[in-house]
Request: fold
Amino acid sequence: MDDMKDKSIHLSVEKLSEEIQNMKIYKDFYTDLQMQWEKRIHKSLNSMCTEIGVSLARFRLASDKDELEEKWNELSTYDIDLTPYRPVYAPKDFLEVLLWIRSPNYRPIDAFYSGEGNWDFTQIPLKVKTLSELRQLYQQITRGEPLLGVNPNMCSASSHYLTLDAERTALGEKVLASNHAPVAQEFLKRGAPRSLRGRLWAQVMGSDIKPVHREYFAELKQAVLQYDLMIDKLIIKDVQLTASNDDQYFVFEDMLYQVLLCFSRDTEILTVFNHSSSSPIHGILKSKPATIENTVVYPPSGVIPFHGFTMYATAFCYLYDDPCALYFTFRAFYLRYWFRLHEVSSHEQGILSLCLLFERLLQRHETQLWIHFKMINVQPIRVVFKWLMRAFSGHLPPEQLLYLWDTIIAFDSLQVIPLLAVCILSFRRENLLQVDTLQNVEAVLADLSSLQVMPLLQIALMKDSHWHTD
Reply:
């Protein structure tokens, strides 16, 4: 008996050792992929600089500095030629990289493209939650309790709905007075009253404004005035290509310039690389020897914006009139959540895991749709990836987007994003089953303005939904 026991212990230790070794292999695997992706980004950035004959950074000319300072609150009137500049990459470029990922221990038996990328992410060895586990995580939504953002006729306690906002506002004021982030976070699980949302988010994210924050923001502004970064043109162009063309956000153009230009100078953002698979660009100061002392991070924040990066900041414009208050809550969101949406990693809330979660939920709970996509040779992830990578910003109306982001910080999880993506496909199922091209699929899903986020999530998560349990 003792021999059998010893043998069992020995096998368990061997298995554990093997699992640890596999974990290390995969961790190195994702880190290597991220490094390769970063090299492509860096190469694209440097190629653009060479093509148009500009440097990555230089001292700003005195005349330019004076004009920028004078127009600081009306940066939309700051006129520069952006014609030669183009986005370093777009979400679709990043998706192509992700779809090319080959797990070191996986041999596909069914691929959509033979030797040209993967049909889906099933071969990625990451563990994602089941619907039952999501129901456990989002209990307050699962139970069908009255939630802000749910219409009365969809609410189990509809007779009390009219007073719900007033009750939540009164309770929210008490929550804010307690000044305890976990209490505010718990409160957000049933939605934030519009009038309190900005203060509640700041309390949960630890971004309440103090005098030291105003001083720091003023220093960032001075850094913008002092140094002319090539990244500035990419930021300005991105705002123009996205928010400025959006009926919901164009009025915030000036504030977005301020916030994003300051963001690029903020060295505090480098702390994200302590728990990220990414690493920032390092450059050598001009006319200096290549030594550690002459090496600098570029840009100072370490973050290279992609096409649509602006949209991570836009929704905050509805919460804060003060650029400083907006800046620090946006930065807190980026450091906790948004950075995970544009890097290759094995983290359970990284973009790869979110893609895989979307596919697993769709395949298991909307099987007819999954088969239909397969039959018409349309990869579902291609349809929703822009939603996932931008956390639906620019795709949902602002009010609905803010309810979604309430849920993200209330439950401290990005997993609601792929869940909502499946809910939307499920809601539009009948129309999707009638079309057979990618273009027509995208047409069915192009306008999300009529969708109500919280009812969709509640219907999917409640036990009596048409989605069967795991």
Q: What stands out?
A: The two ends are 39 Å apart (CA to CA). Residues 111-116, 154-158 have pLDDT under 50 and may be disordered.
